[in-house]
Amino acid sequence: MSEKLQGRESGQNWEGSVGQAAQAESGKIQPKQLLVLLVLSLSLAIIVIDATIVIVALPQIQQDFKITLKDLEWITSLYALIFGSFLLSWGKLSDEYGRKLIFMAGISMFIVGSIIDGFSLNLSQMLVGRVIQGFGAAMASPSTLSILTTTFTGKSRNVAFGIWGATAGAAAVLGTLPHTSLGGGHSSSTFQ
Question: Residue 77: helix, strand or coil by DSSP?
């Protein structure tokens, strides 16, 4: 019988660590796990915030690029379209080729898309950046949850999932806060 199989039969987890199995029963989160949770939660927050925070910049983008409202809608919609279209595919690929690898590649791609958006001189360049951001977000987002699933066990997994979910919800709301605080949410706004 292989060592891996013997480890599973003796109550050890997938890494073969009896200490981590005991930690799972207590529900205590270790410092290394806390760092993983922080990185994954912040990454998820950036991905979710990016879907809504661009609303704040739309009036200025419209003015700078001299584009119509129809063209402006693509800036917000394209990110969500690409993100949603590739989310399941990248989730499956991360299970096959490695969660950490796909996560890091996705975050890197997201950063490249953000840089392109930041330096874009016209709508076409901005849309290319939004596509790259959406694709990177679709790579990274499912990996955050699967990494949490394999990093945490027992009661600590419940806590990690709670923090992860709360981060996603809070990020969705936080992305629109600058818009409302700048007057974008009032009926007196010139851009609606």
Answer: helix
Domain extent listing, the chain:
30-177
Locate 180 and state its tokens. Answer: 């409302």
Cβ atoms 137, 106 nearer than 8 A: yes
Long-range contacts of 66-69 (CB under 8 A, 24+ apart): 67/123
Class of domain 30-177: mainly alpha
C-beta separation of 160 from 32 below 8 A: no
pLDDT of 66-125, one tens digit each?
Answer: 999 899 999 989 999 999 999 999 999 999 999 999 999 999 999 999 999 999 999 999
Does residue 149 sit in helix, strand or coil? helix
Residue 102 structure tokens: 């796909």
